[in-house]
Amino acid sequence: MKPAPFDYIAPRRVADVLALLADEEREAKIVAGGQSLIPMLSMRLARPEVLVDITRVPELDRLGVDAAGALHIGAAVRQSAVADDPAVRDGWPLLAAAIGHIGHPQIRHRGTVCGSLAHHDPAAELPAAALALDARFVVDGPRGPRTVAAEDFFVATFQTAVEPDELLTEVVLGPQPGRGWAFEELTRRHGDFATVGVAVLLERADTSGTVRDARVVFCGAGPRARTAARRGAGADRHRGRRAGGRRGRPRRPRSPRTRRRHPRHGPLPARRRRPPPRPRLHHRLGALLMTPSSPTPAEAPAPVPGTDARRAGTPPLSEPSGWHEVRLTVNGGPVIAEVESRLLLSDFLRDRLGLTGTHVGCEHGVCGACTVLMDGSPVRSCLTLAVQCEGRALRTVEGLAPDDAPLTPVQRAFHECHGMQCGFCTPGFVMTTTALAESAERPAEPEVADALSGHLCRCTGYRNIRRAVCQALDERFGK
């Protein structure tokens, strides 16, 4: 399915965003990365009347540490930007590790930290990390800004303390000097939502190893991220939650089993005894992780074919409309196009530009066949709206070796290593490998594995694909 029609607007000020949210006549929805929202739009699980893109508000795209040592993450800051920031890796390694478990690099290049927290999927990693790090959430609205503690922010599944007319503007994390940490999760395969995950943060009282404060927070273990253990400062809030019952209340005694009788046919067969419960995964993970882990040339833009008959009076992106004119660069050439607000980038490339090398498979960001490069980073074109590409530079597989140009080292490696069978997944693999080969330094083996895990090969030809990637990287960086 495709998204239902909606108006799209990209304001430039927070005040304009709040005014749109306060409009009671039209339902507005915030979008930044859209990696969770756009699949919901495509499956029509969400049908807002207005989609408000906050990525063009300058004050929401700020990432930095203040004079007090606190980390500020704006609502439009990408997950990959946070995880790659040296200050975050050094001062908040638990946060960087949690982001590394979110989907795949292609998702993290578009997704935002605040977007994941405001979405609050209970199986997501960032709510657990926010609870463990005692995050503070700055929320703005018609009643003025307010700060919400992490314990009060997450209410229930897909529900937070943010009101419909409010906006989460930033997340603030206090300094975390000298703390031991760990973040682990169990998944069916890398990149899936966690079956269960755990974030552990330890603070030592002195050099003897005495623990002054310990926090264990689980995701995927209930309708919200759950703090299962906390000792030290702030521990009073969690006292009383014992295995015997909720908040220490004793369980009601069960009546002895009795043999059931049918009113006419006598005794009924005894109920089957349930098998003994398996040890809960989050209990085992919590016991495992109670020790700290180591941090590891300008030319006139050409109209798109089929858009010569232009719609009169198309408004700019700063005004809500179901149609917008976008200007972008595709494979080195400027493009002007008038697009419907709900048009996916994958459909724009294939149907409007004729670039059918971008394949469409799952259309909800899992298979990786639609991967293209946006400003040099691999992204899912099925999870991006065409109107969001205003001012962006896109590259598809057709732009790697146009016309009769020789194959690139990546394409040649896939050819020589037989890194393709049916070829459906090949453009996505090639684009991601191209991004790896264009890195300033050779990517480490875990980074390569993480990037390739964002693609599915229907023919299961992963061995030859991996050989092709290694050959391309060897040619680029040397063995």
Produce the secondary structure layout.
Layout: E1 7-9, H1 14-22, E2 28-31, H2 37-42, E3 50-53, E4 63-65, E5 71-74, H3 79-84, H4 86-91, H5 93-100, H6 105-108, H7 113-119, H8 125-132, E6 136-140, E7 146-149, H9 150-153, E8 154-156, E9 159-160, E10 167-173, E11 180-186, E12 196-204, E13 211-219, E14 226-231, E15 261-262, E16 266-267, H10 281-288, E17 302-303, E18 323-330, E19 333-340, H11 345-352, E20 371-374, E21 377-380, E22 393-395, H12 409-416, H13 426-437, H14 445-452, H15 462-477
Parallel strand pairs: 1-3, 2-3, 17-19, 18-22
Antiparallel strand pairs: 4-5, 5-10, 6-7, 6-10, 8-9, 11-12, 12-13, 13-14, 15-16, 18-19, 20-21, 20-22
What does this structure look like?
Helix 5 (93-100) runs antiparallel to helix 8 (125-132), helix 12 (409-416) packs across helix 15 and helix 13 (426-437) packs parallel to helix 15. The chain has 15 helices and 22 strands. By secondary structure, the chain is an alpha+beta fold. Mean pLDDT is 86; it is low at 233-248, 290-300 and 306-310. The longest helix is centred in the last third of the chain and has 16 residues, at 462-477. It starts with 6 loop residues before the first strand and ends with a helix.
Give the N-to-C terminal Cα separation: 46 Å
How does the major sheet shape up? 6 strands, mixed
Q: What is the chains' assembly state?
A: single chain
Shape: globular
**Gyration radius over CA:** 25 Å
Under the CATH scheme, which architecture of the domain at 61-234 and 281-295 would be assigned? 2-Layer Sandwich
Strand content: 15-25%
Q: Can you tell me the CATH class of the domain at 61-234 and 281-295?
A: Alpha Beta
How many helices?
15
User: How are the strands ordered across the major sheet?
Assistant: 17-19-18-22-20-21
| Average pLDDT metric | 86
Structural class: alpha+beta
By CATH, the topology of the domain at 61-234 and 281-295 is: Uridine Diphospho-n-acetylenolpyruvylglucosamine Reductase, domain 3
* Count of beta strands: 22
Helix content: 10-25%
Stretches with pLDDT under 50, minimum 5 residues: 233-248, 290-300, 306-310
